[in-house]
Amino acid sequence: MGCYETLLTRKTFYTMDSINANQPEDNIENLEGNEAWKKLKQLAEKADTCFFCSNIKTGLPFSTRPMSPQKIDDNGDMWFLSANDSHKNEEIAADPFVQLLFQGSSYSGFLNVYGIAEISEDKSKIDELWDPVLKVWFTEGKSDPRISIIKVTPTQGHYWDNKHGNAIAFVKQIAGAIMGTTIDDSIEGDLKA
Predict the structure, then answer these.
(1) Gene3D superfamilies, per this entry (predicted)?
(2) CB of 39 closer than 8 Å to CB of 159
(3) Cβ neighbours of residue 93 under 8 Å, at least 6 residues apart?
(4) What is the DSSP string of 75-112?
(5) How far is CA 27 from CA 17, 22, 159, in A?
(6) Strand residue runs (E) in the chain
(7) What pLDDT is stored for residue 22 in this prediction?
(8) Band of the pLDDT at 13, cuts 50, 70, 90?
(9) Which SS3 state, helix, strand or coil, does residue 151 take?
């Protein structure tokens, strides 16, 4: 973790800890194993795209690009299609540790996932993941020789969401503001294998 990222994370947690201390209800729920990966899948599928960060352990500035997973399985594994001559594939070959950042809406569905990426060119998996809109990037269709698969296996993560949906969360925030107290519908926690 970089110095700036560490400071930002600490500042965020200190701020959230002071808010959490004023919560009348529990809003921390750490999840492990299957429950963690169900939550990961639920939140990641709400997001239209994610920020895919590579080069995170090399000591170089990490690279970030928007991507959309083609599939998220019940184990939390995320599958992307990528050009085999892309910078991201080159970076993953040098450093397989990646970070994925998802945002489901302006108010909820935030997800930060660390994982290990592996690249393959398994034709049967490409067939399974193929969507005709991908022809924009792979002009020869699913038989394009440039297609590769990136599988990200999550190792850990953290999520921020709300318990009862954005409408209830909004009502609770308004009520809290009127009453001058912390009434928040938020829930957050660590995700671990």
Answers:
(1) Electron Transport, Fmn-binding Protein, Chain A (2.30.110.10)
(2) yes
(3) 119
(4) T--EEEEEETTSHHHHHHHH--EEEEEEESSSSS-EEE
(5) 11, 11, 12
(6) 31-32, 50-54, 63-67, 71-72, 78-83, 97-103, 110-120, 147-162, 186-192
(7) 58
(8) very low
(9) strand
